[in-house]
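Working notes for the structural subgroup meeting. M.R. asked for a predicted model of this chain before we commit to crystallization trials. I am recording the input and output together here so anyone reviewing the notebook later can reproduce the run.

Input as submitted:
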Amino acid sequence: LRVVLANRGFEGKYDALHVPQDVRSGCNRGYAYINFVNHQYYREAEVALQGQRLPGRSEKTTAVVPAPVQGWEALERLRGR
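Returned structure, recorded in token form:
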């Protein structure tokens, strides 16, 4: 995913990328979290990546949606619960 983002011009436009893995299979779970450094970069990614197939064997297409919790401070508050 990092390579796909770089090839689409998003290198340096996000500060966190998390692709959860299934511990048993070692495969990703089919979703990722990307924290773009500003809202404009998110909008650009939404346009560029929505409905795209990523490299690999899957026929699935991407769905770009905002997370229900936004920003590092909000995430830290959730982790503190």
